[in-house]
Amino acid sequence: MQGYILDVKKAKNEDCVVSLLTTEKIRILYRFYGARHPIVTTGYKIDFEVENDSVQFMPKLRNITHLGHPWLADLDRMRVWQNLVTLLYRHLKDIDLPGPFYFDLLERYASIWHLQNPKRAAVEAYLELLRHEGRLHLPDDCFACGGGLDDRCSLIRAFLPAHPHCVIAPKFRTEKIREAFEALSTIDLEDDEVEMLWLTMCEGL
Questions:
Q1: What average pLDDT does this structure show over 11-33?
Q2: Domain locations in the chain?
Q3: Per residue in 35-75, pLDDT tens?
Q4: What pLDDT score was predicted for residue 33?
Q5: Which residues are 2's β-sheet partners?
Q6: Domain 1-113 belongs to what architecture?
């Protein structure tokens, strides 16, 4: 079985509780510490087995094999990836059966993470997530007052569009945001605009 490590929480001694996103569900497994055990880290993709023991309160994580990507040694790319995965964990942590979309999303972006600015890839992944969940709002009206937007707009958490005077948030050219949202692409956005979108993402999905 394969999955992405969404979260690792310390338990007693050096044991830990691992949350894993698989194609079927989010699995919460207990992992015993051992000198020969591979390190489990948020964001890693692993192959693993589940050992069910009626005596234990939680299934065990066994026989872990890391399934590496070429960019794992790039600390900057890895840091952004782990931030994205942590945001996804917080978004999904109360859902047992999120469906295959989220696993497939990580699969696709993990395969291209080394090809572009990782923050651009993260923003594009988030745009896909918002569209999948029916939460991607084109910049037509201000969510705060309901009025139509002009040539400038601001975006708050969940990329909700608003008048710049209605919220305290970075400003964007409305048409550029519309094009990015429709294409699910940041190709026409400047690096500083992508950085602002990334920081907005980091407030929570």
A1: 89
A2: 1-113, 116-205
A3: 456 678 999 999 999 988 766 678 999 889 999 898 999 99
A4: 73
A5: 47
A6: Beta Barrel (2.40)
